[in-house]
UniProtKB/TrEMBL annotation:
Catalytic reaction list: 6-phospho-D-gluconate = 2-dehydro-3-deoxy-6-phospho-D-gluconate + H2O
Bound cofactor: record note: Binds 1 [4Fe-4S] cluster.
Protein name as it appears in the record: Phosphogluconate dehydratase
Organism in which the protein naturally occurs: Tritonibacter horizontis
Chain residues that bind [4Fe-4S] cluster: C155, C222
Cofactor: [4Fe-4S] cluster
The protein's annotated pathway: Carbohydrate metabolism; Entner-Doudoroff pathway
Gene: edd
Source taxonomy: Bacteria, Pseudomonadati, Pseudomonadota, Alphaproteobacteria, Rhodobacterales
Domain (Dihydroxy-acid/6-phosphogluconate dehydratase N-terminal) ranges: 69-380
Domain Dihydroxy-acid/6-phosphogluconate dehydratase C-terminal residues, every copy: 406-598
């Protein structure tokens, strides 16, 4: 089927809008590619330093005959999703030796767990960690001795940061190697219910901890469909993973085989061979549109509305929220994974997973089929599913039928006709809402506001019984990137869910973020202009009437005269120091707005 007219129009608009910056970026990458393998230009002393600790690989490196693979790793063993990466360098080195190549760990990048820092001061560094990761990639690859690179990362800011960094070295091929999700434990729905009981004071902390540890119980990605697993989806839709590799559990023979094959594949795409495919050619305008389609069709994390913009700008491509909105208007929601449903990503994968979804969306004209990918083929290669035949990795055609229609549906019979995210605009500003998990009866809330300057104030008001009656819109402001790094406000989810569950009409409006796992309570987030920039959100007072309307895409102040008030100011000194926050003052001063990627990098 031909490409849907809206997708074609949005793609053409992005290409036209991005032409000057994209052309300049590609010119830089072509010039870098023409220089050839950089290590040959090093001095003898420089080469000796680079090869000194490589043991059996020294002779191969000195000869300059084999391809050399750089490994950029986000390994640490506090992130369950990244713990499996501990052994990947050894596996990768062994794999590339089989094809006459060599590999070294080029460098490590920081990787923080948003699950640990939710509601804590460290969350204020979370978004900024993305750009720090990109800078760390720059340092890792600055030695300029590699013919290709593999990137080891899974979670929230890590994959976007790695993609930004990879594009700075866009003349090199890049393959992203995932670790996969942990096996299913306590269901996400049961976990959410226990959190609500704790918030009500019905159970103690010992029972809460027991439930949390039953949910997060082993190596691998958390099994809900939050930002980490949305990242994994994107890497397949955008052609940087091997087909079907995102949701294979860690510690399995298939996972190990995919890691080995991914390393070999990266070297095979280098300029030393006949299939040179630099990452700058894979991540083009069409690839980013495919990523946006995947985001909408799966009901993915709102965080990617920021990250995809920043990722694209690193390759000279300019996206805006209107692009996302128009795509969401026409792309059907065909997956239900918690918090948008009861299934986790293991159930999703078993039901047909990404291969089934890509097939459905291609057949219905919602994806560009002709993008370049690390397979050497177009997106059709991602209909294939990996298997082991003995010790040999092979791919077979995946299922063309959903194996569970409560989790996956065909594009012709979707869960809803539009995508999982909604842009909201009006005199209060511009924001976004994840609607895939919000019941239709909760998508329009018009009510008085209660205004807070941080989430702790809001939680204290709830505990004091101040939010027990009547419809209310909770406004939490001075949470934007310039104010305090734009933390997620996920720790508010339990009490907001309690309020909604007891029959109150409730919504959240904030210039901060919510977790990629949030969704049942309507939340207008990423509001711009942010309060620190004097946005209308900084003019609201308790009792003002606001309409949050995800049906019509509106975010409106109903009370007259609000916009004539001066914007309030806030004491932000508590955000300036402690838990490393003082080290990121320059970021807070130079970061762009949420709708331009909340990044410290220019285009």
């Amino acid at each position: 089927m031909s490409l849907h007219a809206t997708l074609a129009a949005v793609t053409d608009r992005i290409i036209e809008r991005s032409a000057p910056t994209r052309e300049a970026y590609l010119a830089r990458m072509r010039a870098a590619g023409l220089q050839g393998p950089a290590r040959a230009h090093l001095s003898c002393s420089g080469q000796a330093h680079a090869y000194a600790a490589t043991g059996e690989d020294q002779a191969t490196l000195a000869s300059g005959l084999g391809g050399h693979l750089g490994i950029v790793t986000a390994y640490n063993d506090m992130l369950s999703a990244h713990q499996p990466f501990e052994t990947y360098p050894m596996v990768i080195r062994e794999a590339v030796r089989e094809v006459g190549g060599t590999a070294q760990v080029a460098g490590g990048v920081p990787a923080m767990c948003d699950g640990v820092t939710q509601g804590e001061a460290g969350m204020e560094l979370s978004l900024f960690s993305r750009d720090s990761i990109a800078m760390s990639v720059g340092i890792a690859l600055s030695h300029n001795v590699f013919d290709a690179a593999v990137f080891l990362g899974v979670c929230d800011k890590i994959v976007p940061g790695l993609v930004i960094g990879a594009q700075a070295f866009g003349h090199l091929p890049a393959v992203f190697l995932p670790a996969g999700p942990m096996t299913s434990g306590l269901s996400n729905d049961e976990k959410a219910q226990i959190r609500q009981k704790f918030a009500k004071g019905e159970i103690g902390r010992d029972e809460l901890l027991k439930a949390e540890m039953a949910a997060y119980h082993g190596p691998g990605t958390c099994t809900f469909y939050g930002t980490a697993n949305t990242n994994q989806m994107l890497m397949e839709f955008m052609g940087l993973h091997l087909p079907g590799s995102s949701f294979v559990n860690p510690g399995t023979e298939l996972r190990d085989a995919l890691t080995r094959e991914g390393a070999k594949r990266a070297l095979s795409l280098s300029a030393l061979g006949n299939a040179y495919t630099p990452v700058c050619d894979i991540l083009d305008e069409k690839a980013y549109v495919n990523g946006m389609v995947g985001l909408m069709a799966t009901g993915g994390s709102t965080n990617l509305l920021i990250h995809l913009i920043a990722m694209a700008r690193a390759g000279g491509i300019i996206l805006d929220w209107q692009d996302f909105s128009e795509i969401s208007d026409v792309v059907p929601l065909i997956a239900r994974v918690y918090p948008n449903g009861l299934a986790d990503v293991n159930h999703f994968h078993a039901s047909g997973g990404l291969g089934y979804m890509i097939g459905q969306l291609l057949d219905a004209g919602y994806l560009h089929p002709d993008t370049k990918t690390v397979t050497g083929e177009g997106l059709g290669a991602y209909l294939m599913e990996p298997f082991l035949e003995g010790a040999t990795l092979t791919w077979r055609k995946g299922t063309s039928e959903s194996l569970n229609d409560k989790i996956l549906r065909p594009a012709s019979d979707p869960f809803q006709a539009t995508g999982g995210l909604q842009r909201l605009t009006g005199n209060l500003g511009t924001g976004v809402m994840k609607i895939s998990a919000v019941a239709e009866e909760h998508r329009l809330v018009e009510a008085p506001v209660r205004v807070f300057h941080d989430q702790d104030e809001a939680k204290a008001a709830f505990k004091a019984g101040e939010l027990n009656e009547g419809d209310v819109i909770i406004v939490v402001r001075f949470q934007g990137p310039k104010a305090n790094g734009m933390p997620e406000l996920h720790s508010m989810t339990p009490f907001l869910s309690i309020m909604q569950g007891r029959g109150q009409k409730v919504a959240l409006v904030t210039d901060g973020r919510m977790s990629g796992a949030s969704g049942k309570v309507p939340s207008a987030i990423h509001v711009v202009p942010e309060a620190l920039d004097g946005g209308a959100i900084a003019k609201l007072q308790d009792g003002d009437i606001v309409r949050v309307d995800a049906v019509n895409g509106a975010l409106e102040i109903i009370t007259e005269g609000v916009l004539d008030r001066p914007a309030v100011t806030a004491d932000l000194s508590a955000y300036q120091h402690g838990t490393g926050r003082e080290l990121f003052a320059l970021f807070r001063k130079s970061v762009t707005s949420a709708d331009t990627g909340a990044t410290v990098f220019g285009v």
